[in-house]
Design a protein that fits this description.
By secondary structure, this protein is an alpha/beta fold. Helix content is about 35%, strand content about 20%. The protein has a single domain, classed as Spore Coat Polysaccharide Biosynthesis Protein SpsA, Chain A, CATH 3.90.550.10. The chain has helices spanning about 25-35, 55-65, 80-90, 110-120, 155-160, 170-175, 190-200, 225-240, 250-270, and strands at about 15-20, 40-45, 70, 95-100, 105, 125-130, 150, 170, 205-215.
């Protein structure tokens, strides 16, 4: 089935990339988006008041590719949630894709996801990913046959298996359910958002093939396991269903189930 088509004059997909002092890796990330076989997209880089040459590097890309647009924020949010929300509000596409400024996409990522969305009618699609430290060692393969898994709200509580840089979601949905910009949600704002999305839509689809390279760097917040446990618990403790109910003791249970399973996937399987 053919990929989802855009309306005349607007891109099918708006790619949102928050960036802060990303000069070390952003050129590689931008190139991986430009290399997509699905070309009907715009790329909005939302610079969170970087103090390095991030903005200048993005301008150089936009000078040769009209799909690339730099949005420079007037204040620093201190978390990717704010820049992502700004990007969504500025987007023209019916579909929103996210990528962090140091991750790398498989060249067929958007193509395969848009074909899957067209075939399944899904409002939310994610993919598998691979950890890497140096892009020279990152090896993507083409899927010979796509394996598709259905994800629901409960499965995300037990083990969140959605990597933000893999997500393509309908703009209407992510506009109504924005990322929480509180600093207490930093590095878990995406998990909170995906839970609310799944509570509303019921199910999403995940392509069980690595389409994203997730860069492992020293000092990144997701590397501080105890801090992440506390923030994960904070999100679940404060989560409120649309009915107004809370998770109660489930906040503790699902925090530990997530991190126990994370140890297996990240330390043994080196991916998600």
């Amino acid at each position: 089935m053919a990929p989802v088509a855009s309306s005349a004059g607007t891109p099918a997909v708006s790619v949102i990339m928050p960036a802060y002092n990303a000069q070390g890796h952003i050129a590689t990330t931008l190139a991986s988006v430009q290399a997509q076989t699905f070309t009907d997209f715009e790329l909005l880089v939302v610079d969170d008041c970087s103090t390095d040459s991030t903005a200048e590097m993005v301008r150089a890309f936009s000078a040769t590719d009209e799909r690339v647009r730099l949005i420079e924020l007037k204040r620093n949010y201190g978390t990717p949630a704010g820049p992502r929300n700004v990007g969504v509000r500025s987007a023209g596409g019916e579909w929103i894709a996210f990528i962090d400024a140091d991750d790398i996409w498989h060249p067929r990522k958007l193509e395969v996801q848009m074909q899957t969305i067209a075939a399944t009618g899904a409002q939310f699609c994610s993919t598998g990913m691979l950890d890497f430290k140096d892009e020279a060692g990152l090896r993507f393969t083409d899927p010979s046959k796509l394996a598709i898994e259905t994800l629901g709200f409960l499965s995300q509580l037990v083990k969140c298996s959605i990597v933000t840089s893999s997500v393509v979601v309908r703009r209407e949905l992510i506009t109504r359910i924005p990322f929480n910009e509180s600093l207490r949600y930093k590095a878990r704002e995406d998990f909170d958002c995906w839970l609310h999305c799944h509570e509303e839509i019921g199910k999403s689809v995940k392509i069980m093939h690595p389409m994203v390279g997730y860069r492992i760097t020293s000092g990144q917040i997701s590397g501080s396991k105890w801090r992440m446990v506390r923030r994960h618990y904070h999100v679940l403790r404060r989560y409120r269903f649309r009915s107004g109910g809370a998770l109660g003791i489930g906040a503790v249970v699902f925090t530990f189930s997530h991190f126990l399973l994370s140890l297996y996937y990240r330390l043994i399987k080196k991916g998600l």
